[in-house]
């Protein structure tokens, strides 16, 4: 069974993953209604991925004899000025999520819960990948600029990133 402190900290992380999913969903909807079809597909898929992260925590907590709690729903930001603003905010958000996962690992070390610490390694690696993915997307956006032709090119880029990402997930 998880200690009260570890269970509470994972329930807090469940909130973070849930909110991440909501943030990506709101971004996907903005992108879809502002002509960024490929970005929106990518963001919808990422919203699903965040929900999967949340569920991974859910099952872990319940399998260890504690109780995973459904978090409160808070409306995320729904209006953006540009697609660049979206990807800037994503990178900032993912850095915050990495810090939150690291904090959770710290709680497990303090509580001498090495099983949960081991379980968390998947998330530690995932955060490294996510930060690096969004850094590279933002670099591309900055390189291309924000005139219409560049944003059209960016949409093509994001479509190929989405394809290679889904291929990677299935191997
Ligand atoms: Fe759950 O990985 Fe992003 O936030």
Secondary structure layout plus pairing:
Blueprint: H1 4-33, H2 37-63, H3 83-110, H4 114-144, H5 148-170
Helix pairs in contact: 1-2, 1-3, 2-5, 3-4, 4-5
Bound molecules: hydroxy diiron-OXO moiety.
The site of hydroxy diiron-OXO moiety has 8 residues, from helix 1, helix 2, helix 3 and helix 4.
Question: What are its keywords?
Answer:
171 residues; mainly alpha; Ferritin; binds hydroxy diiron-OXO moiety
Structure overview:
The protein is mostly helical and 171 residues long. It has one domain (4-164): Ferritin, core subunit, four-helix bundle (Ferritin, Up-down Bundle). Helix content is 81%, strand content 0%. The chain is built from five helices and no strands. It has helices at 4-33, 37-63, 83-110, 114-144, 148-170. Helix 1 (4-33) runs antiparallel to helix 2 and helix 1 (4-33) packs antiparallel against helix 3. The two termini are 33 Å apart. The mean pLDDT is 95. Residues 17, 20, 50, 53, 94, 97, 126, 130 line the site of hydroxy diiron-OXO moiety. Hydroxy diiron-OXO moiety binds at residues 17, 20, 50, 53, 94, 97, 126, 130.
């Amino acid at each position: 069974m998880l200690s009260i402190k570890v269970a509470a900290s994972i329930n807090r992380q469940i909130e973070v993953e849930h909110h991440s999913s909501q943030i990506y969903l709101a971004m996907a909807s903005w992108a879809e209604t502002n002509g960024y079809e490929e970005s929106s597909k990518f963001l919808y898929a990422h919203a699903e991925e965040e929900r999967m992260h949340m569920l991974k925590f859910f099952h872990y907590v319940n399998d260890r004899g504690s109780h995973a709690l459904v978090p409160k729903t808070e409306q995320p930001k729904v209006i953006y000025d540009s697609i660049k603003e979206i990807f800037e905010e994503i990178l900032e958000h993912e850095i915050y999520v990495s810090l939150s996962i690291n904090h959770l690992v710290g709680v497990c070390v303090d509580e001498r819960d090495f099983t949960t610490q081991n379980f968390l390694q998947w998330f530690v690696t995932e955060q490294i990948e996510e930060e690096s993915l969004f850094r590279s997307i933002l670099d591309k956006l900055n390189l291309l600029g924000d005139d219409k032709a560049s944003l059209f090119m960016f949409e093509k880029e994001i479509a190929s990133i989405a394809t290679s990402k889904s291929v990677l997930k299935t191997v």
